[in-house]
Design goal:
165 residues, mainly alpha
Amino acid sequence: ILIAKNPVAEARGLNIFAGNLLYMNVNELIIISLAAFFIFLLHLIFHKEFMFISFDKETALTTGLKANQIDFLLYLSIGILISLTMKTSGIIFVFGSLIIPPMTALIFARKASTVLWVSPVLAIISVISGFLIAYLNDLPVSPAIIGVYGVLFLFLMIIKLTLRK
């Protein structure tokens, strides 16, 4: 209600919800890029531990692995990137990017390792396509990317259901 009463706040509130990637400044891009790089390295280093703890925490604890600390590190790293990207990208884009590409990869993938490599490829293809569609049709970028995520998901699901028959 307070956002609706203030026109300036309403525009800012909508940007938080839908995001506006085109208004990202250089400093924000540098901070997000550095954080993503270091978190990517962290996930490469602790890949096996993260997978082990995610799928079987009790066994990880019994093997002597500091499961609670590694679990905290996983959630902390994900939380840092979510909080950094939320301002520039918006809630819809951030959570859509976390959920839709892995769900799309799960349509055909049989192993978790396949999903871990296929979902970023699908996300990159969707982001590039979404930017192009937004540019060519004068649309907001984040919702356009989410639309591409959805169309790709539906397209692959239809293919899977067709092949199943």
